């Protein structure tokens, strides 16, 4: 059942994912000086069948405010996907979550080795900033995009979430603390994706604020859904090891407040996300559908 | 004896190092949202007593072309020091060079743990780009600085050097291959430091080209001197484990072409570095002294 619901989301994302993959290939192919063994490991993780939700968000938010996807948004989408992939590679390392399986294939350090995985992650993170600084057309836009990405992915964002997540293992944090971890670890990158897309589309302040709020809501909802699926779905359905969080003694929404309450909160967040889009007409329908597909996954 | 020679270089760098430390402290202190345990690990490695050569180069090159150090150069110097420190933290990890001792104190993963060290490195790398995008005044300057740094530190630069270095362990590469590894691993970051400083100082094309060339020469010379000192100096003198490279089966200049020839090449590079400075008067004397101090270390 989860599989069907996952494919609802997959269908919604497919076109955008293809566009992102194509831009990622172009950017990597242009780089002829990258060490070949490093490039192989970077490509291995980058082109593993991911859902491309964050990068699709960049493209949709650009489309919502400007009726079309421009090249700057495609570069921004590729950059956020590189940063997301680096975070997965490092997160899966033995010293971190120690996972063998990701996006339906062996993790980077299993397919290559730990040193290569560390460096492939470092390479993707650095390359994301290089791509933005080289390929985005206007200087002011480059700065805003890099500022957003470095803030969301940095030590006050995603990395703060990752370390707090590790530090909370085998403890029972309050639900407020866990919410803070999920916001840092996941929701800020969704928020960043929405903001980058909106900025590329030339959003005004009000549009930007709404889309940032949308990103934060569905990002938190997505992470709670992930907690739920870790308990309820199989490894095959997830493309990564199921039941991993509870085995690692990780704090999750279902562990803290139960499955029923967790599903309610995920649903509430999806509705709140849709409500942030009142400013927009049918051009924002894909964002509304994404919020709904997100909750459907957990049912 | 090496200790005396190291302190020649230390004396030359001291004022600049203080300026860089002060800027690093300002930048980190401003960031109140960084996770505290992460900030502690980042600060631990960042403020370990390093020589600050790369960041001093940024400041000197700015001074050489504009007669003074401006705030943009101070930010760029801090950013390159963050990136250098991240590279040391990751390089010392058990899966990489597996080192317990760096800058005279336990390495980051020994003082904290592996997960924290990986994330502290990731945090410093990301924060460097954040600092440049937020604090450097002119958009065009930000883009040039970020472009230089991401290129030099990225998968076609330092990271390519690190993976090639690991792949060359227990092999006997040609001296040309080893030179390529050293250029990627070390010299490109010195070149980048010179370029960033020159750009902040408003260098013209000819000045920029000369200072980039200077950086590349002393960067390669510095790495060869490092190879020499790994054999000839004690761990106490180095502040890191001595004899490490040969024990790890790493290809080094002394191992490939002998100690005498290695010292000759380091000396030749220092002279060539000085020769690139013909365009400049006595304002470039610190750069000349640095090149000479570099060779003196190995005697």
Q: Which chains make the largest contact?
A: A-B, 50 and 49 residues
Low-confidence stretches of chain A: none
Query: What proportion of the residues of chain A form beta strands (DSSP E)?
Result: under 5%
Please tally the helical runs of chain A, counting DSSP H or I stretches of 4 or more residues. Answer: 15
**What's the count of strands of chain A?**
2
Secondary structure: elements and pairs:
The structure is a homodimer of 299-residue chains.
Chain A: H1 2-30, H2 36-46, H3 53-66, H4 71-91, E1 101-102, E2 105-106, H5 108-111, H6 114-135, H7 139-153, H8 158-167, H9 175-200, H10 205-232, H11 235-238, H12 244-247, H13 253-257, H14 259-275, H15 285-296
Antiparallel strand pairs in A: 1-2
Helix pairs in contact in A: 1-3, 1-4, 1-15, 2-6, 3-4, 3-9, 4-6, 4-9, 7-9, 8-9, 9-10, 10-14, 14-15
Descriptive report:
- Two copies of one chain form a homodimer.
- Chain A is an all-alpha fold.
- The first copy, chain A, has 15 helices and two strands.
- In chain A, strands 1-2 form a two-stranded antiparallel ribbon.
- In chain A, strand 1 and strand 2 form a beta hairpin.
- In chain A, helix 1 crosses helix 4, helix 3 (53-66) crosses helix 9 and helix 10 (205-232) runs antiparallel to helix 14 (259-275).
- The longest helix of chain A is centred in the N-terminal third of the chain and has 29 residues, at 2-30.
- The N and C termini of chain A lie close together (8 Å).
- The mean pLDDT of chain A is 92.
- Chains A and B meet through helix 2, helix 6, helix 7 and helix 8 of A and helix 2, helix 6, helix 7 and helix 8 of B.
């Amino acid at each position: 059942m989860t599989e069907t619901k996952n494919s609802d989301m997959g269908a919604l994302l497919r076109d955008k994912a293809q566009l992102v993959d194509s831009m990622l290939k172009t950017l990597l192919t242009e780089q002829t000086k990258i060490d070949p063994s490093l490039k192989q490991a970077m490509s291995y993780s980058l082109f593993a069948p991911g859902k491309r939700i964050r990068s699709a968000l960049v493209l949709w938010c650009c489309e919502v405010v400007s009726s079309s996807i421009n090249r700057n948004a495609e570069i921004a989408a590729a950059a956020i996907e590189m940063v997301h992939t680096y975070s997965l590679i490092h997160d899966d390392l033995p010293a971190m979550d120690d996972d063998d399986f990701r996006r339906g294939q062996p993790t980077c350090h299993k397919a290559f080795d730990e040193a290569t995985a560390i460096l492939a992650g470092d390479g993707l993170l650095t390359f994301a900033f290089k791509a933005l600084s080289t390929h985005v057309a206007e200087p002011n836009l480059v700065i805003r995009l890099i500022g957003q990405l470095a803030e969301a992915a940095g030590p006050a964002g995603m990395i703060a979430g990752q370390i707090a997540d590790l530090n909370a293992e085998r403890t029972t944090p309050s639900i407020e603390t866990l919410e803070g971890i999920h916001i840092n670890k996941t929701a800020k990158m969704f928020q960043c994706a929405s903001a980058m897309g909106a900025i590329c589309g030339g959003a005004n302040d009000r549009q930007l604020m709404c889309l940032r709020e949308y990103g934060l809501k569905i990002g938190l909802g997505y992470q709670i859904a992930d907690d739920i699926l870790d308990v309820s779905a199989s490894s095959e359905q997830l493309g990564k090891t199921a039941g991993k969080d509870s085995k690692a003694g990780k704090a999750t929404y279902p562990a803290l407040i139960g499955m029923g309450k967790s599903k309610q909160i995920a649903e509430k967040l999806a509705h709140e996300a849709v409500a942030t889009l009142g400013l927009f007409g049918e051009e924002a329908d894909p964002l509304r559908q994404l919020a709904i597909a997100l909750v459907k996954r957990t049912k």
